[in-house]
User: What shape does this take?
Amino acid sequence: MINNSIHNADFSFLRPAAVLDIGEWLKHLGLESEGGYLERFRAEGINTVRDLKSREFTDELLDSLEIMIPGHRKRVKWSGNCNLV
Assistant: This one.
């Protein structure tokens, strides 16, 4: 039997993650000083995690952000697809 209590849990404490600055998010991923990522996120109008989550998270977005290193793409893609907001 699967415990469904997690589906009814209150995750409102995670809402502050939505307004987390994208620079802090990149720092959490260990990518704050990598290849100008922060500047490219900001140039795309992505300033917070909420901004990122409002986009369709595709390979085309990663390409436009010039995130080409496979490990970096994987980290950004995984974290960007987490349901925190």
Observations:
- Residues 4 and 38 are 38 Å apart (CA to CA).
